[in-house]
Amino acid sequence: MPAFEGINMSWFFFILFAALAVGSAIAMISQKNPVYSAVFLIITFFAVAGCYYLLQAPFLSIVQIIVYAGAIMVLFLFVIMLLNLRKEIRLPLHGPWQVAFAALFAAILLLQLVMFILAAVPTFHSAPGHGALSGGGEPLGLLLFTKYIYPFEIASLVLLVAIIGAVVLGRKKLPKEF
Amino acid sequence: MVPLPYYLTLAAVLFVIGVIGVLIRRNALVIFMSIELMLNAANLTFVAFAQEWRALDGQIFVFFIMTVAAAEVAVGLAVIISLFRLRKTVHVDDIHLLRG
Asked: Which entry of A1, A127, A155, B78 is 20 to 30 Å from A134 by CA?
């Protein structure tokens, strides 16, 4: 990616996006109002999209913004505004022991993950041919329609089933046999 | 370029934040958002490895994960809406019975 050839620039953007992602993710889980949580999650998605761009996946970065920040989060915001959650916002965020247990288990999990990454670092060797990976639309589409044609078709089936399921579940009254 | 372990650590941190969100929050919608965050952390790992190994297959996997995530959100939000119609709440502590 020509725009990020400089070592310092890619580090600068990585640290910027990482801080943005982690900060707004923490804000997301600590907000009482679900609308604010959704907005912070959108910021996290944008930061992750920036990381994709740094990782030479410009197409995925745009798809991340369109699908996640655009479609999925708009769906979330619609549902939040559809449901009347006034009463719930006043309830306590979490139980007394929940935070302690969650912090304990999360610390253990994070320790395990980081130890695993550190242990695996010597086994990473990037492929020869240090050329740039082209994650644009054309090579991805070529791969999607040749090597991964069956998963692609199955994905369309999954989406069809999801549409039918959402329509059935979202109906006003469930039919008798349910 | 920023080395791979940094991206993996970022993905691990995002995943753990998602886990914390699922564990401490009681609002079903926020729990669902935390699950989306965890999916995103997994996607970031895929893209980072795709870049490291100069193989586009990882990016294709992210493509499919996004498809499944979109389907999951559509069905999950429909479930939450019908749950809200039934119980007038999305507080998971109040929804602990399987029968309607």
From this structure: A155
